[in-house]
Every structure is written in C-alpha cells, then in structure tokens.
C-alpha cells in the first residue's frame, strides 16, 4: 500500500495577523523602556548589539508592508515551511542590513511604531490569499505572516536574554505558530515515524526513519517546552546542554536529534 501523505498544517489567518501585531506591540513596549546603555548591550547573535537586534526586528516585520506595495505574482510557489530551510544562507547579509538600519535610525521605538502602523494599514487592505513577490519565491500573505511569528518570537527571546529583567511577553498565538512551524520543519527534514517529538501544549510530530509506531507508548520520544524547542531549532541552545540541564527528555535509540539541529540560524 502507498504511504499515506501527511496533511499540511493550516493556520487561522485572523489569529496569525493578530499574533504578529500583538507580538510586535510587546516588543515595542519593551524597547520603549531601554536607555542608551541597554541598547548598546551585546546579544548572543555574534557582533549584534541590542540596538542592531531591534533594527532587525523592525526590518523583518516591515518587509510584509514593502512586499504588499509591489505587484502581486500570479500564484504562490513556496510555503512557510520552505522558508525555514532557506534562512541560514542569508545570515551575513541580514546582519549588515541591521547594523546600517540601526545607525540610520536614532529612535528604535519610533521605528517599531512606524512599522506597526504601516503593517496594520496594509493588512486591513489585503486578504490572506494575496501573493507576495518574495525573493525566494512567491508566497501567500497568510503563509508569510506565519514566518513573521518565528522572527518575532525568536528575537523576543534574544532581547530577553540580552537585557536582564526585560521580560517582553510572548503572545500565545505567536508562540504556538512559531513552535508548530519549526516542529513541522523537523518532520520535513527527517521524514519518518519512528520518533515522536512533543512540545506541549502546541505541537506533536512524527519523524526519523525506522519502525513506525502504531499504538501505545512510542519507543522513541522527545519532549520539551516551547521556548527550549525554539532555542534548539534556531541554534540558541545545543542538544547536549539541553539534556544536561534536563530541559529536554529523550528516550529510545532514535531519540537523539543532535544531528538534525539546528533547523535554522
């Protein structure tokens, strides 16, 4: 019998729009409290200071508005899942753009405010089915907004790690979408049914070649919380440290995901 095709995950476009705008608002409120010394603090992203990181958050969100201002392609060519695997090659260029933007914009909070205002206006004018002419391939607005939840959640975590006591909150829908997209990216990278990866309360995926589990307790299980999973998937935390710190539980001979992570950087 042919192998059953996995169902592609769908996202509620209304909730995703709200999640992107809400998480951007959370970041803006946090950045508003930062002074020059805090904006100059180093981050875990190489040579980026907090100011560079904030500039990148504005740029990576504002790209939605800029793409909506361009003519729409006839049809989509890629999905949100395709975006995950194409991010690492862009790292150097992205860092350069962030630094230039940070130097040009003296008021990071004002930049975020302008970004949020433009985005809210453009989203009100365009349906989720609208296709965007992104450089990696045409993609629907609905799918591209899912990728923005990853950008916003991951970099909110970077901000919180860089500035002691900042504690920018995470919108629940943004955190859920980010977790699910990265879990699905793992299943796409290592297709199979021998290992179950659980990230409660948001995601469960089957992956890794081997004997397929059919009933009862799976022989290979990985379980962790959403932020730990996101850090593993994006290279902020390595597999061994996560195990040593008991932030991940992994049982079974096919439960070692160290060779598959990170999924993006």
Distance between the termini: 38 Å
User: What is the helix/strand order?
Assistant: HHHHHHEEHHEEEHHE
Helix-and-strand structural type: alpha+beta
- E-strand count: 6
Largest sheet: 4 strands, mixed
Beta-strand proportion: 5-15%
Shape: globular
- The helix tally amounts to 10
Cα Rg: 19 Å
Oligomer: single chain
Query: What percentage of residues falls in helices of 4 or more residues?
Result: 40-55%
Low-confidence stretches: none
Lateral strand order in the biggest sheet: 4-3-5-6
Which whole number gives the mean pLDDT? 91
Describe the protein.
- This protein has 265 residues and is α+β, with helices and mostly antiparallel strands.
- Helix content is 51%, strand content 8%.
- Strand 3 (195-199) and strand 4 (203-207) form a beta hairpin.
- Helix 1 (13-32) packs across helix 8 (172-189), helix 3 (50-68) packs antiparallel against helix 7 (141-162) and helix 7 (141-162) packs across helix 8 (172-189).
- The relative contact order is 0.14.
- The mean pLDDT is 91.
Describe how the helices and strands are arranged.
Layout: H1 13-32, H2 36-39, H3 50-68, H4 80-85, H5 91-104, H6 108-125, E1 131-132, E2 139-140, H7 141-162, H8 172-189, E3 195-199, E4 203-207, E5 221-224, H9 226-233, H10 239-244, E6 248-251
Parallel strand pairs: 3-5
Antiparallel strand pairs: 1-2, 3-4, 5-6
Helix pairs in contact: 1-6, 1-7, 1-8, 3-5, 3-6, 3-7, 7-8, 8-9
């Amino acid at each position: 019998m042919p192998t059953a095709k996995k169902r592609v995950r769908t996202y509620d476009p209304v909730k995703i729009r709200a999640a992107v705008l809400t998480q951007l608002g959370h970041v803006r409120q946090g950045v508003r409290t930062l002074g020059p010394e805090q904006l100059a603090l180093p981050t875990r992203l190489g040579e980026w200071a907090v100011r560079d990181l904030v500039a990148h958050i504005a740029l990576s969100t504002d790209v939605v508005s800029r793409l909506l201002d361009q003519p729409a392609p006839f049809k989509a060519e890629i999905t949100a899942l395709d975006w995950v695997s194409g991010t690492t090659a862009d790292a150097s260029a992205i860092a350069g753009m962030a630094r230039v933007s940070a130097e040009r914009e003296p008021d990071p909070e004002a930049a975020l405010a302008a970004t949020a205002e433009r985005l809210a206006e453009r989203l009100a004018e365009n349906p989720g089915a609208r296709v965007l002419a992104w450089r990696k391939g045409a993609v629907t607005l609905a799918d591209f907004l899912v990728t923005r939840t990853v950008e916003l959640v991951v970099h909110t975590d970077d901000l919180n790690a860089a500035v002691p006591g900042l504690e920018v909150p995470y919108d629940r829908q943004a955190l859920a979408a980010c977790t699910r997209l990265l879990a699905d990216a793992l299943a796409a990278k290592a297709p199979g049914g021998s290992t179950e990866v659980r990230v409660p309360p948001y995601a469960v995926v089957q992956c890794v070649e081997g004997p397929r589990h059919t009933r009862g307790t799976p022989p290979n299980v990985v379980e962790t919380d959403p932020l730990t999973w996101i850090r593993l998937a994006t290279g902020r935390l390595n597999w061994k440290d996560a195990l040593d710190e008991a932030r991940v539980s992994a049982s079974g001979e096919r439960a070692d995901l160290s060779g598959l992570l990170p999924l993006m950087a």
